């Protein structure tokens, strides 16, 4: 073979390699992920475990670095950063995803799920897969839906008093997540809803911009919100799943094999987080007790009143999700 021919054969081989085995297959990459919660929180732990599996399966080529405790801001910022590719992953509440992916907003309707088991069944089944696919299919957002996380039930807490009935919320400014649905929900429940990032909440409670907020036990306890608002009332008005999303920009630099691994370990994280969540709820209740939190129960009759009161939220925000609401209610 002449020298020139050898060069051109080598060139063709190289070209073939470039075309048929993409260069990105071997890249070393640290996938940055963000969470508002601290290290040890079930969602942070689940993503870290997902990262450890990814690292092992790729011989250290892919790693995950979780930035916990709002180091990178609040969840709206996480979504923005993931959209531009500054973050590879974000673990956020569906509360903030609703305004971005309209199909997901159905999960934010108050008193949608009968109980946690119902919510688990829905996100673990075909509806869950379908809604994750809606994120990926949405061209504007630049995000991929990876997995669901448990977020328990949300309860109202405040500085002044417990909430056993609607009237107890009168005149109270209660922080909600940034989604118009929740502001209206809180107003309908008898209080005054104030939308605010989770990262602003402690300051809001300290300065009196709000009198209270609403969240599950692990968020309330791990954030030590009991230092600012001691009355925790079991209204259980929302049961919002949480979610791991992936940046499309970063996703498109991964080989199909690596993408599959991310999906696989994401699904495993979804299952693992559930056990971690149960333990964390127990631990949080102990922590709340040790910190003299006053827990108020809400009678079934009063819960019914809250449910009736939020009907305008359903009328306004639920109308477009009629079919999905029906399907969710049929999941046993
Ligand atoms: C928590 C949730 C966070 C965030 C926070 C909030 O329960 O885990 O993702 O949504 O609530 O109220 O902003």
Automatic annotation (TrEMBL):
Keywords assigned: Signal
Domain of life the protein comes from: Bacteria
Signal peptide bounds: 1-25
GO BP term (any one): transmembrane transport
GO molecular function: carbohydrate binding
Keyword Signal found: yes
One protein family per Pfam: DctP
Cellular compartments per GO CC: outer membrane-bounded periplasmic space
InterPro entries reported for this sequence: DctP_fam, TRAP_DctP, TRAP_DctP_sf
NCBIfam families: dctP (TIGR00787), TRAP_S1 (NF037995)
Cross-referenced PANTHER family: DICARBOXYLATE-BINDING PERIPLASMIC PROTEIN (PTHR33376:SF2), PTHR33376
Protein name according to UniProt: TRAP transporter substrate-binding protein
